[in-house]
Design a protein that fits this description.
Rhopdopsin 7-helix transmembrane proteins, 3-stranded mixed beta sheet, mainly alpha, 78% helix, 3 strands, 325 residues
Length: 325
Amino acid sequence: MVHEVGLQIEFIGNMERENQTSLKEFIFLGLSDDPKLQTLLFATGLLIYMLTLAGNLAIIRLVQVDQHLHTPMYFLLSNLSFTEICYITTTMPKMLWDLLSKKKTISFAGCMLQMYFFLTTAATEGVLLSVMAYDRYAAICRPLHYTLLMSQPVCRWLLAASWAIGNINAMVNTTFVFSLNFCGSNQIVHFFCDIPPVLHLSCSDTSLAELVTFIVSGSIMTITVSLIVLSYILIVSSVLKIHTVQGRIKTFSTCASHLTVVSIFYSTAIFTYMRPSSSHSMEQDRLISVLYTIITPLLNPLIYSFKNKDMQAALRNVLRKKGCR
């Protein structure tokens, strides 16, 4: 009798382990299951993706060809644009494919890789934004030492550190999320593999993975936001010492684009990742994620170039040269 009970327990244990490892793929529920709406979403999404690529590639190219833009500020801006291209490419092509496909699946390994690259580029962008704030501090508050504080080796080191931090963030979070057991539903209420919707599918205790996300991603956000806030406190202090109102406006206008991008990026990131799972609404998160994964990369080149006289002048020079050929 004891032997039979032992065999039954062993059999159940084997079945549970098999169920825990039997999940080979996930199914995205996407933004909508309405065929007509999916067609509209595909056309809109494709247009946004092409405009995002064109805008960010244009910034990179302008910085390369115009000697006036060979400064630390535009070096960082071109690298931010490169990061934005990587950022949106981790999610958008797959989303567009799924809008036209009947089978909206992604393999277990594919989901893990998508999460890894998404978290890498997202954290890298956050660190780069804090580096850009430091650049504005150095230019406004320490103009005599600017070339030393933001020399070419320093810029390259800061860029490498940004990508290193992004990779560490992704490595730690992805490892903890995908070390969990997935033995129930494989339907992700989202259009890409993000941490909250994937954790929602786990049949394990997700408290440790949530804690790791809160500590690792939260630390990166806290440090970068603190550096940005500190930089702008010092910048505002210096700007207020300028005697003329026109001078204050002109000096601070160089920071307006950066502040706009920071506000959009961090408000959505904090809302998504710094809340406990009990307060997550999958539908709400899905809509919010559209803002920070799709709209933000589209807006960044527009925000940075629309009122930027240097970028406008560089674009006019390139168009004039092409017109003369």
